[in-house]
């Protein structure tokens, strides 16, 4: 069985780690390179000529879509886009992506995309590739995707639904919780314990009795010593973990392979 050469390009190091961990479970996949922006993607594709590329869509310098459009068709590997925003799905298929995986994804959904890509690559290697783009689009439209977690908040007396995956972090504020989004902040009456129970723990990580982070917006972490970590978000804000949370933090990052 011929090995399949793959690259991973995602500006989130946790995202790269999660994809790498899942790919390493497949003996047929050989990871030949990793990158964190659009220019890295182009250089990796030109230098290593991979069979398969896992690309984030929203990246610095060039988006994943721009990367694919910039490459001559003969140089393009098979592409699986991985992104947090489903609004890019049709655009992904417009550039003949093999599949589109929405973050946060589970192992089954990722492996479905990987197996589909492997099948197409094998057909291509055998000279019998069939164009399955229309079928893929039908599959995407009919797939029973889980609805995103939402929470109702009051804005000037009017109810507003907030997608929890858009929340960068949650902080305790007295009897309320402060939900920080990209350009908005909301207060909701709830407890950290109850909120933590309702969150998707593939991306939300409680690091302190008063702080929960969405690791999709995490830029990096470092160990400070004395059972404390420092976390830096993509917007530049930093948080220090509580000492009693070290074990659960270690377990989380070991699980995702980062």
Give the secondary structure arrangement, pairings included.
Elements: E1 4-9, H1 13-23, E2 29-35, H2 38-48, E3 52-56, H3 64-70, E4 78-83, H4 89-94, E5 99-102, H5 107-125, H6 133-142, E6 150-155, E7 158-163, E8 169-173, E9 176-180, E10 185-189, H7 192-198, E11 204-208, E12 211-214, E13 218-225, E14 228-233, E15 238-240, H8 246-256
Parallel strand pairs: 1-2, 1-3, 3-4, 4-5
Antiparallel strand pairs: 6-7, 8-9, 8-12, 9-10, 11-12, 13-14, 14-15
Fill in the keyword field for this structure.
five-stranded parallel beta sheet; 32% helix; 2 domains; 8 helices; five-stranded antiparallel beta sheet; 258 residues; alpha/beta; 15 strands; OB fold (Dihydrolipoamide Acetyltransferase, E2P); Rossmann fold; single chain
Q: Order of strands across the widest beta sheet?
A: 2-1-3-4-5
β content, as a range? 25-35%
Radius of gyration: 20 Å
Assembly state here? single chain
The main sheet comes to:
5 strands, parallel
Name the overall outline. elongated
Which percent range fits the helix content?
25-40%
Overall tally of structural domains: 2
Give an account of the 3D structure:
Strand 14 (228-233) and strand 15 (238-240) form a beta hairpin. Helices cover 32% and strands 31% of the residues. Helix 2 crosses helix 3 (64-70). Strands 2-1-3-4-5 form a five-stranded parallel beta sheet, with helices on both faces. It has a five-stranded antiparallel beta sheet with strand order 10-9-8-12-11. Strands 13-14-15 form a three-stranded antiparallel beta sheet, with no helix packed on it. It has two domains: 4-142, Response regulator (Rossmann fold, 3-Layer(aba) Sandwich); 150-256, OB fold (Dihydrolipoamide Acetyltransferase, E2P), CATH 2.40.50.1020. The chain is α/β, with parallel strands linked by helices and 258 residues long. The protein contains eight helices and 15 strands.
């Amino acid at each position: 069985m011929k090995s399949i050469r793959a690259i991973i390009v995602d500006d989130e190091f946790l995202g790269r780690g999660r994809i790498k961990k899942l790919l390493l479970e497949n003996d047929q996949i050989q990871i030949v390179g990793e990158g964190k922006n659009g220019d890295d993607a182009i250089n990796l594709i030109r230098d290593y000529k991979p069979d398969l590329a896992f690309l984030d869509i929203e990246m610095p310098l060039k988006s994943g879509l721009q990367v694919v459009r910039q490459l001559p068709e003969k140089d393009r590997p098979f592409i699986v886009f991985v992104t947090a925003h489903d609004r890019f799905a049709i655009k992904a298929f417009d550039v003949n992506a093999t599949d589109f995986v929405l973050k946060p994804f589970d192992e089954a959904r990722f492996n479905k995309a990987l197996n589909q890509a492997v099948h197409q690559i094998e057909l291509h290697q055998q000279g019998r590739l069939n164009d399955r783009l229309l079928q893929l689009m039908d599959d995407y439209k009919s797939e029973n995707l889980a609805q995103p977690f939402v929470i109702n908040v009051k804005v000037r007396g009017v109810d507003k639904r907030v997608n929890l995956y858009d929340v960068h972090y949650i902080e305790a504020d007295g009897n309320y919780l402060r939900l920080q989004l990209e350009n908005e902040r909301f207060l909701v009456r709830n407890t950290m314990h109850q909120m933590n129970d309702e969150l998707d723990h593939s991306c939300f990580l409680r690091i302190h009795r008063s702080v929960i982070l969405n690791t999709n917006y995490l830029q990096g972490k470092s160990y400070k010593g004395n059972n404390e970590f420092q976390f830096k978000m993509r917007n530049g804000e930093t948080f220090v973990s509580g000492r009693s949370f070290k074990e659960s933090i270690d377990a989380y990052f070991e699980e995702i392979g980062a």
